[in-house]
Amino acid sequence: MTQIFLFALIGLGAGSVYAALGAGVVVGFRGTGIINFSAGALAVWSAYVFDELQKTGNLILPIVVVPHSIHLTDDPSFVLCLLVALLSSLVLTLAVHLLVFNPLRSAPVLARVVSSVGILLVIQALILMHFGGDPRAMKPILPNETVTISSITFPRDRLWLALIVAVVGLSLWAYLRFTRIGLATRGAAESESTISLAGFSPQLLAGLTWAISGLVTSLVVILAGPLSSLSASTYIFAIIPALAAALIGRLKSVSITLIAGLGLGSFQSVVQYLTTKDWWPGWARIGLTDAVPFLVIVVTLILFGQSLPNRGSLRVDQLPRVTQPKMQIRTMLLVGVCGIILMALLGGSYRFGLMTSLIVSMIMLSLVVLIGLVGQISLAQAAIAGTAGFALSKFSSVSGLNFPLGLILSVLVSIVVGVVVGIPALRIRGTQLAVVTLASGLALEKFVFRNSSFVSPTGSLISKPTIFGLDLGVREGRNIARLSFGILVVVFVTLACILVTNLIRSGTGRRMLAVRSNERAAAAVGISVSATKLLAFAVASGLAGMGGCFIGYSRGQLSAESFSVFTSLTFLAFAYLGGITSVGGALVAGLSAPLGLMFVVMDRNINLGQSYALLAGVGLVTTAIFNPQGVAGKTAEGFAESRQRKLAKSGKVPKEQETRQDVVQQLPAEYLAQPRPDFDAADTVLEISGLTVKYGGLVALNDATLSVRQGEIVGLIGPNGGGKTTFIDAVTGFTSAQGEVVFKDHSLRGLTPHIIARRGLRRTWQSVELFSDISIADNLLVAIEGSTIRGTLRDLVFPAQNKRERHVSQALAAVGLNVNAKKETSELSLGQQKLLGVARALVAEPTLLMLDEPAAGLSSSETEALGRQIVEISQTGVSILLVDHDMDLVLKVCDRIFVLDFGCIIASGTPDEIRANPAVIEAYLGAPSEVGS
Amino acid sequence: MTLLSVESLTAGYGGIPVVRDVSIHVESGEIVALLGANGAGKTTLLHTIAGLIPEIGGTIAVADQKVNGWSTHQIVRQGLSLLPENRGIFFQLTVAENLRLYQRKGGSVSVADVIEYFPALAALLERKAGLLSGGEQQMLSLACRFIADPKLMLIDEMSLGLAPIIFQRMLPVLAQFAADRGVGVLLVEQHVHVALKSASRAYVLNRGELTFSGTAHDLQNQHQFLESNYMGSAKQGE
After folding, report:
1. In the UniProt record, which is one GO cellular component term (chain A) (predicted)?
2. From the CA atom positions of chain B, what is the Rg in Å?
3. Measured between CA atoms, how close is B93 to chain A, in angstroms?
4. Rounded distance between C-alpha atoms, residue A247 and residue A261, angstroms
């Protein structure tokens, strides 16, 4: 027991670092909404600066090319060194804020995560270049004489450090709690627009926040440095347990984060001690301390994942556009043949570089699918690749299965692991997903790849691939890159490219893009968001796994380094640099990745050393800021522009489509003259009773009862904030509610939105919510294509051509939208976008259509036309629930109208009855007495 | 003194105009109603004046200072205060903390002053804004505008989600504050008749264009015009 206590105390050293980094992450997140993955890297940089200054009197700057070392003093005193190191940390953090985070403040989460990973890589490379890779012993700073408390003797520096962390943490807490600026930081965390209305500059607050969190973490890491040796990767990846602590503090509470950080350090230390016991299972001895934070993160996110704050910023830009491949399969095969020719022309290490490039391209393709297509961040792709690689080594050494059966089985293993890693994505998204995957990548690396119980300690050998007695191995004698292996690689990469191209063009790809674009709208058109995400993880893991196996074949032996977390981050950097949204991007990324063809060419001619890693980091950051589509995306854009220019010159510009006005005139003018049928209560399609929605203490919808019959148009009106949208959300499954909803004789209680949509109850959105990443036609197609496993597999191999184009044109005609369906949704006017939203709900031939403010933002003639379309749609037997503010429209087209005010239905009846109802007029114009006076 | 002068303003999102060629002005000490049906562009206009969205064309001057291209916090320091639809308060902070954040440095309005306008807030100072009732939140929201010691207030649908009776009690307090300190107020309101009772002048926006500019009295007498702007033209024929 005393031993456990001793180890718990020793663990306070690491715990202090976790606590300080975690607190820095929390403060940074509250001030800016960015989770800074590079916090550990930035802090350890200052510790290196401090150490160098203390030992040599030289100040090292985070720059290259120009001299980076300045001799400051011959007599470096502790105070001077500390001040200079902290000052350098301050300048560095502010530079990061001004150059990276501030320009990205309205960028999608993805770009912010990626850029902070880029900073991490830059700092890592700079440390290796300027300080070398060996761990350094620092001079003691804190008093480290031993102290004995109840018969346990241990160095007292840990207690000092924990005390300092506690004091620093308390000051941080007091700063946030009591100062006006701290208060403003908390306010900015809640709403950036409100804080600017209070007269504070959000950017200034953000800069201040980074400065403070940078100083605090640097100070603690400098003080903690002498407790163990100073090594870059230890502190850089201390960000993972720090993130675990920050998540326990729910990214909000500095004090809970501090306690969690200290506790985690102690716990890890105790676990470390326990693994030395005889009774501890041998397989769980290595890497367990790295698995602990991973488990903590997973459990925390599962417990409060959804309640964690999503900090709103003023506006959010779009994700980079996905390049819809226009390439034919034939072209790809041609590229494959060119690859083989190039393979034959190159020799020796150049050929090996090309092989490596192509193999890495497979892993890059996996990132294209996962990040580019579905918008799910994974920082564990190298680990997934490694899983397959090590599995292949097992299969080939234990059971002799190698090629192709061993390859297939290994890929299946990586798919299973990848899907498991992806499961948290069903509950969390964005940065939190990045945190989980980063932690799982590290856990896989340390607990599995470096664990001799799982992986052969003498090196994981992989024998060469052969088929029908044909030697496809990479080596033979002194030839390190045999052509036959090169051809094998080209064949598999070409297949992978064709597979991803098919996927992007197919219905499955459309669904993935729809999920990336807008998860709620995707669910509303019947797409299972969960299934789509898991499918993407499965495909991506398969691709990464294939890459991992080929890395194994090309090396003949595997090491954990090939699949470390750093490798994952580097892969991400190059995938982004090449172009995260296209197949071409993955190839560019592969060609430029470390050890790839470009690397070999450059390394042969100039001595690269660490500068290649530095280039990767800098490239990643600049790509994220200036060119989110990457090299390939930019090039494709350039081609498209020049093609457009050529067309313009030759006068072949496609003709503009007819305007909406023409269509309006083609419609029958007297649509209201047609008598409306009598609606039979027996034909009721939707029966709602006692529907109640509460948000906290607020009753947004109170005991609403309403029915809709077949073919009927029912209006739902009321003042702003009356509960109309809440009503639609509750019925379509987007908000949990009490009460009964019966649709076509079946209760909808507890069903998820996409199931309700598939049953024939479709909705539109007040804010349109189109899928901006795909064309007009695809917006409609995505709403009608069911997803089956067979269909998906077929999409990968042989993407079905759109046989449903007729549906598209019918749906567009039904809403009176006459546009080129191949156009982008961004080219539509607001009115046209609204109509497309209606068409998207209509195309799936629903029984009941719920329209949320379709006329808002339309011109009078457009509204008039919309009214006619609504009546025409209802004449085909579709029931319609119309929510709108345009009383003119509602009174004209509806058969019955319900009026909602303060969550209660205050009136219902025919348009004439509603028009004459004084309660309705009061709800709209306020004081009834004034109306007549 | 002209506190707000908007000339030929065109505003919208992503280059697509929602409000076209609008010119309005607000003088010291007056309440001006800005009316119009949903989607007419009232909120867009207010947000553009406050610098929350960039204007497409035209000029905006607050207290005789051209503020085109300024950030919101700079315009706020120039003397503008916007009460947005979401109430513009920090729901996770207490009433006292909200007031402290909004209080202008060197301003002449103290916490005691705003409590004189809203005595009910005195007992709620330590409560989190998120736990207040809707009416209390709106009171705090107005109090936050007052304590900023503004020259010009833009009020966006103060009545949103409030029972009419509560809102009708709050409007006279706003009028009193404006009169006491010579503050100009641009009031967007869906309760038209209540708004017109407090306002001296009014503008009506319809689908992004100004369709009326004149005294509140004139507008009140034009029932048909008003109702057609709100209830749709279906009403006109009767």
Report:
1. plasma membrane
2. 17
3. 8
4. 10
List the 26-45 stretch of B: residues with Cβ below 8 A of A: 37-39
- Per DSSP, what are the bridge partners of residue A920? none
* Residue B90 to residue B70: CA distance in whole angstroms: 24
What is the C-alpha separation between A516 and A519, in angstroms, rounded?
7
ipTM above 0.90, yes or no: yes
Q: Which residue of B has its CA nearest to A854?
A: B39
CA distance B152 to A863: 36
B2-87+150-230 has which fold? Rossmann fold (3.40.50)
Superfamily name with CATH number, domain A664-932: P-loop containing nucleotide triphosphate hydrolases (3.40.50.300)
Domain A2-307 matching CATH 3.30.1340: the answer reads no
Question: Which of residues 51 through 90 in chain B touch A, CB cutoff 8 A?
Answer: 52, 71-74, 76-77, 81-82, 84, 86, 88-90
Tokens describing residue A493: 């990469």
Cβ-defined contact of B97 to A930 (cutoff 8 Å): no
Tell me whether the CATH fold assigned to A2-307 matches the one assigned to A664-932. no
Average pLDDT of every residue of chain A: 86
Identify which of A790, A113, A308 has the alpha carbon closest to the alpha carbon of residue A508: A790
pLDDT in tens, B84-116: 988 899 988 999 999 999 998 888 999 999 999
Element (H, E) at A29: helix A12-32
The answer to whether A860 contacts chain B (CB < 8 Å) is yes
CB within 8 Å: A887 and B232 = yes
The residues in A 720-759 lying below 8 A from B, measured between CB atoms, are 720-721
The pLDDT tens digits of the residues spanning A462-521 come to 888 888 888 888 888 888 889 999 999 999 999 999 999 999 888 899 899 999 888 888
Classify residue A643 by burial, with Cβ atoms within 10 Å: 0-12, 13-18, 19+: exposed
Inter-chain touch A196–B73, beta carbons under 8 Å: yes
Q: Among all residues of chain B, which has the CA nearest to that of A901? A: B161
In this structure, which topology does domain A329-604 adopt according to CATH? Answer: ABC transporter involved in vitamin B12 uptake, BtuC (1.10.3470)
Q: Where are the domains of chain B?
A: 2-87+150-230
Q: How is chain A split into domains, by residue range?
A: 2-307, 329-604, 664-932
What are the tokens at B109?
A: 């309005």
| CB < 8 Å from A in window 106-125 of B | none
**Rounded CA gap, A302 and A325, in Å?**
37
Beta carbons within 8 Å of A651's beta carbon, 6+ residues apart: none
